[in-house]
Amino acid sequence: MDDVNRRTGTGSAASPGNVVAVLRDLGPVTRQQLQQHLGLSRATLVERLDVLARHRLVTTVGLRASSGGRPAQLLAVDRTSRVAVVGAVGATLVSVGVADLRGTVLAERTERLPPGHTPDDVLPWLLDTARDQLRTLGRQGDLAAAGLAVPGQIDQRTGISVMPPTMTAWRDQPLRTPLAEGLSVDVQLENDANALAYGEYLAADAPRATVLGVSVGSGIGAGVVIGGRPHRGATGCAGEIGHIRIEDREERCTCGRHGCVAALASGTALVRRLRFDGVRTIPDVIRRVSTGEQFASDLAHEAGRLVGTVLATVVTILNPDLVRVGGEIGSLPPFLAGLTSTLREQAHEVAARGLDIGPAVLGERAQLVGLAGLAAEAVLAPAAVDRLAAG
Ligand SMILES: [Zn+2]
């Protein structure tokens, strides 16, 4: 069996958490197969499965035909019995939804945000909307976790958003605590591009895949999933490609430095470069490009090429299987075309050969699905299952 993502070996073989871990690794199996794999007595296994069924963590998913005798029931982890609240805040958009532990989004709402918004403007709305969604779905009692994606670096220890350059009012703001108190569940904070990359990793359904997710909206960020895990880096800023400097360019960036790729190729930069022509907002840029206006489309293409130049280095270092590009600007066809052609030209030939580059297949939902997947990992972790079973 492929062991790249094995979760077993953390608890005792007999613990409920370990039974769930083995079920996740093996996929649907019969009681007998599970018993053989775990080396438990039949009585102990029945007891564990009773506890897990009572907590709605294990369910039967069908029958396995057998040669002679009765067909045996197949057991699997129940990923539909619990839900997570998932939210994503960017400089211009906020989304909030409810998803189950398969990553199926059951309710979703997206709103545009005013410039300069603060956590005090957004978090109460996010909490109210999530509670409404849970109530409408009749799933208040099933809430098990929550996740929030924001741009920039996150201090995972304190749950503080450290430095989103496109959202200055969110700098050094505690986000985990108010959400955890508001929803009475554990909250995971994640960088927006990491959440996108994880969503796309799940959609690819390839456990070994290394996925590079790129998000281009007001700012530019990237996230990496390696061997099924988001790679956050030593200080939580892995993938912050927006502030890599492009040589000989002096445009001032929102981070305070000059010549960053975000100052040239982000949505904010495109608004600035089209201001002379009456463009004021990112939706204005999108409208101009979507209606085929030549100058705006050429600028979007050039922006894609600049991001492609930066990504060529990243791709050469990581040698990923997939590059998935999302965000309001990232999903514009001229931008994506510029990014793709430059990346193919400039990355190492072998890393570029066969590299699958494309738009985020989950579209605007990629971050929410990624957060639901991360919530599932937290809820189904052996220690979390053992705590639940003991409670
Ligand atoms: Zn910068």
UniProtKB/TrEMBL annotation:
It comes from the Bacteria. Belongs to the ROK (NagC/XylR) family. This is Transcriptional regulator. It comes from Actinophytocola xinjiangensis.
